[in-house]
Amino acid sequence: MNIQWYPGHMTKTRRMIAEQIKNVDAVCEILDARIPLSSRNPDVDELTAGKPRLVVLNRVDQADAEASRRWAAYFREKGYAVLETDAKSGSGTKQFAAAVRTLLADKLRAWAEKGQTGRVVRVMILGIPNVGKSTFINRVAGRKTAKTEDRPGVTRSKQWVPIDRGLELLDTPGILWPKFEDQSVGLNLAFTGAVKDEILDVETLGCHLMAYLADQYPESLRAAYKLAELPARQEENDIAYGYGLLTAAGRKRGFLVSGGEVDTERMAKILLDEFRSGKLGRFTLELPD
Ligand code: G4P
Question: Which residue has the higher pLDDT, 55 or 146?
Fold first, then answer.
C-alpha cells in the first residue's frame, strides 16, 4: 500500500517553521507514544537547526506502559528532555514549564547575568495532525486556546500562546511529510488516524493491523474478539494472515452478508475504531532497537 499525503498547506507550514525557528529558544516535539518514530518528522533535525529539544510522548494512556518507559530512556539518551503525557486527562502536562526551564538552564542563567530576568522563553510546538497538540497546549495554558487548523482553507496564521511566568508557545499546524520511505511508517500513521481514512483502503489496513496485533499482542486480540485461539501463522504475507483474522473476528461479531459470508470491510472499520479509541487495550506499534 503506497500512502502519500502532502497537501499544499503542509509546504507552507514547513516554510513557516523555517522562518520562525530563529525566534524560539527551544523546540517541543509532540510524538504519539504508540508510534514514537513514525510520528516524528524526518525533517525536524534540519528544520530546527540545533535548538534544544523537548520530546513529549503523548497518548501514554493508549500505549504499552513498558514500551513508553523504554522510549523515554531512548530519547533521554539522545540528549532530549522527555515528558510522558496523557493530554486528555492532563497527566504529566504540569511538568512542562519546569522541564523547559531545566532544558534551558544555561541560557536562563546567562540572561539573568545580563539582567534580563523578565525575558520571555519561547518554545515552538511541532507535531503531526491529531497527535494531541491543541489538547496539550490547552492543558499547559490552563485554558482553551484557538485551535490551529490543519485543514486547508482555514486561516493558519502563526499563533503565540502565552503561558504562566514568562513562557510562550508557538503553535504550528500539524505536518506530515511527502512520502513514507518505509511502508510501516505509513501504516502506523494510518492505524493511529494521523492519515485520513478517505485516502486509504480500510480493509487492507485492517489486515495489516490484525497481523501486527496477532504477532505482538495475541492475548489482547483473542480476548477482544473472543477467539478461542488464533489461527497459526502460516504465511509471511500480512494481508493473507490478517484477512483470516478479520474473517474470524467478523464471524464472532455476526457481521455476515447474504450467503453467510463475513463482511470483512465492516470488521476492518470496527477494528480500526476500537484500536483508536483504546477499547482494544494499550499497544505500542514500534520499539527502540
Ligand atoms: P491536534 O491538535 O494534534 O490535531 O490534536 P487534538 O489536540 O485536536 O487531539 C485529537 C484527539 O485526540 C482529540 O480527541 C483529543 O481529545 C485526543 N487526545 C489528545 N491527547 C490525548 C491523549 O494523551 N490521550 C488520549 N486518549 N486522547 C488524546 P477527539 O476525539 O477529537 O475529541 P474528544 O474526544 O476530546 O472530544
Answer: 55
Atom index in ligand 1 nearest the CA of residue 130 equals 4
| Local structure of residue 57 (DSSP, 8 states) | E
Confidence at 6, pLDDT banded by 50, 70, 90: low
206 lines ligand 1 (CB under 6 A): no
Distance CA 255, CA 247 (A): 9
Pick the CATH number of 201-277 from 1.10.1580.10, 2.60.40.740, 1.20.210.10, 3.90.700.10: 1.10.1580.10
DSSP 93: G
Q: Determine phi and psi for 242, rounding to 5 degrees.
A: -65, -35
17: CA distance to ligand 1 center in Å? 23
d(CA 21, CA 62): 31
Q: How far is the CA of 19 from the centre of ligand 1 (A)?
A: 28
Q: For 200-214, write each residue's pLDDT tens digit.
A: 799 999 999 999 999
Asked whether 39 lines ligand 1 (CB < 6 A), one says no
Residue 56 alpha carbon to ligand 1 centre in Å: 14
Domains in the chain: boundaries: 8-171, 201-277
The string of pLDDT tens digits covering residues 220-269 is: 999 999 998 887 887 778 999 999 999 999 999 999 998 989 999 999 99
Domain boundaries 8-171, CATH class: alpha beta
Q: Is the CB of 86 under 6 A from ligand 1?
A: yes
Q: Is the CB of 59 under 6 A from ligand 1?
A: yes
Number of H helices, E strands in the chain: 11, 6
